[in-house]
Amino acid sequence: MIFRRSTLFILGLAAAAVPSQASLSFNNGDQSAGTLNGAIANWNSASGLNYLASDITFTGSLGGTPATYKDASTNLVFEGFNPSGSQGNVVNGTQNSLSISGTSLKQSASAGIIEITGFGASVQAFAFEYQPAFTGSDGFCIGVNHASFDESSFCDDSTGVQSSGDIGFVGITSTTPITSVWIGPSFDQLQTFQINNFDSPVGERSTLLLFGSGLILIGLLGRIRPGAARS
Predict the structure, then answer these.
(1) Rounded to an integer, what distance in angstroms lies between the CA atom of residue 195 and that of residue 128?
(2) What Rg, from alpha-carbon coordinates, does the chain have?
(3) In percent, how much of the chain has pLDDT > 70?
(4) Per the confidence metrics, is the pTM higher than 0.70?
């Protein structure tokens, strides 16, 4: 009986560690609009983190086939996809459009798409600065924790800058752990863009909570007398 109650207690903690529904909060800023620093400050306050432009820059090299970029400090993986469709609005499966430009990661395909994976078990925030090269007039979509990218179905937020080459900022916080991020075109946008830096913590709080709960269960079981366990 004690074992059964302890098991239910652990399962309850596990459910609490993984909320069922995500709620996203976005902070977007634009260099030319004069809101870049304000968006960064808002995101720092909302996330409890300190955004630094030098947190993750792309100083390594692409590897693998198809080419991907993996950040050694965080294990984040960036994959570039060529688009498919009249608006370039879905992934076509071809992953060969990424390159390193200075310390930035460049998506060189027109209306190209980037997927970011490899987040820590309990990471619930990320931010980055970007520079687009417009051939249209709109921005791009960001989708969080979706199986794929489709601007008509999986666009959680749209953002952009006023002029080609300006710096934009996006900071996002989530009520549930982040597993994947998609960045792609929106509304007939055919731009190329580059990510200048990317900031995301390495979080393991949910894992630690479950590990600690397991230790509690072991301690409780150790106190159960053999006779009580048989009851």
Answers:
(1) 7
(2) 21
(3) 69
(4) yes
